[in-house]
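Curious: explain these tokens?
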Amino acid sequence: MKQELTKEKILQAALECFRRKGYINTSMNDIVAASQVSKGGVYWHFKSKEEIFVQIIEADYAEWLALLDRELNKLSDPVEKIRQYGYLFYSLIDKSVWKMLPESYWGELGEHYRDRLNVCYEKDDRLLRELFLEAIRENMLKEPDADALTWIYISTLEGLYAKLSLGFGQRQTLEGYFKLAVDLFIQSIRLPE
């Protein structure tokens, strides 16, 4: 029990360091100081800063998937589930650790850690692909290629998220653009009822 509390203390301290300094500018010494756990104690639980960061992302991804499960199961229409997915994706904007993903993913994370993150991303891709396939089976979509729709939708959401998270414009306006983009995408692929 004490080991789990120590591990959680380290993760929380690391998250605060990442928020304050960014992933690249945070060192293990920063995490040691912020956690008030000995250097040996930090290294007992984690091999590296990369491992700490990836564990934080994996935990956030588990929360994200639980949120999707809860919210999407409230809907029966697969196209509306796809729309809701987009709105929920936008809701991640306040998770500062997600803003660091591009910096860390391409900058410093080793292949093993990128592979672990890719497992998370693939869960999103599979979920969306299944929703698109369900909508295609129910003759609700103009485009019959679930793989293409998944790729286009995820890429669109990630681009919108990047613009919004980097603060290109007033937040309220950008939030409106994000929702409009999701609605336009759904409108463009849905067959008239």
Q: What stands out?
A: The chain has a mean pLDDT of 89. The chain has two domains: 1-46, 48-189. The radius of gyration is 19 Å. The first helix runs from residue 2 to 21.
